[in-house]
Amino acid sequence: MSELDYLNEPQCMKHGPRWRARFQQLMNILRTKFTKQYFYKVGEAVCTCGPDDDIFRFLPEKVQEKRIRKSKDTRWAELITDEVADECYKYFDNYIETNFDKTKDEYGHLKNILHVLKERGQFSSRLNSANRFLYVFYKFDKDKDTTLLNPPPEPPKKEEVKEGVKEEPMTLAVPLEKLDMHLKSLRPEDVGNFIGKKGIHIRRLLKEKQGSKITMGKEEGHVKIEIEATKEDLQEIKDRLLQREALVNQARRQHEESVRQYNEMMGEPSSMDFQSAEESMDQ
C-alpha cells in the first residue's frame, strides 16, 4: 500500500489517529448544537471500530474495554443510500454557510474539515464514519431524531422451551490443570504495573479462556503466581505472563535510567555521594 493509499484509507472519526483531533475540533465548534445529553453520544454513534480492526490495538485500554463494541453496528446499511449521503453532505455544507460568520475562525475550520474529509476519501463509501456523522447531524438538526445516538438493541436470546420447561444448554466440563510460577525478577512494588488498573492486563489475558484463573501472592520476597487453566491454555498464559514481566522490568529500568540522567544534569548527588559526604563529616 502506497503512502497516498494509506492517507486516503477510511478511518473512524472518533478513534482514527488521523481524524480524532479534527473530530474533537468539529464537535467543540458544534457544542451548542448538541445538548449535553447527546453531545458525547455522537462519537459512539459514528464509531466504526470493531475488535478485529488494526486500529483497535492502538487505542487506550479504557477504550478497548468500554468503547469498542463486540460487533459492528449494522443499522447504517439500510439507512444511508448514495442519494441520502449526498443530501446530508449538502445539508451540512449549507448549515455552515448560513449559521457561521465567514469572517470568524469557526467558519474556516468547519469548511476546511469538510474539504479535507472529502479530499482524503472519507466520503468514498456511504457507510464510512464521516457519512455517519453527516447523517446523524442531518437527522438531529432537521428531524429532531436522536434514535441513532442510542446503541443498537441487543438481539433477543433464543431459548428452547419444551412443554413449559426451559432447557438449559449442556456444556462439557473441561479438566483444568494447575501451575505455579515464581517471577523472581518482578519486584512486589511493581505488581500494580504488572496487572494494570483494576487488573485489566490479567482480565484481558483470561478473556475467552474457559474457566481459567490466576492467583497472585508473595513468597520469600518475590511474586508467586498460581495458574489454573486447561492444558491448551496453560502454556500460552505462562508465556504471556513472562512477556508482561519483561515489559514491566524494562519500563522500570528505563525510568531509573531517566531519573539518573536527570539528576546528573541537575547536579543532584547520587545516593553514593550522600554516603561519602556523611563519612567525610564524621571524620
From TrEMBL:
K Homology domain residues: 189-242
Annotated region described as Disordered, given as residue ranges: 251-283
Pfam families recorded: KH_1
Signal peptide: none
Listed Polar residues bias regions: 272-283
GO molecular function terms attached to this record: RNA binding
UniProt keywords, alphabetically: RNA-binding
Protein name: K Homology domain-containing protein
Organism: Mytilus coruscus (Sea mussel)
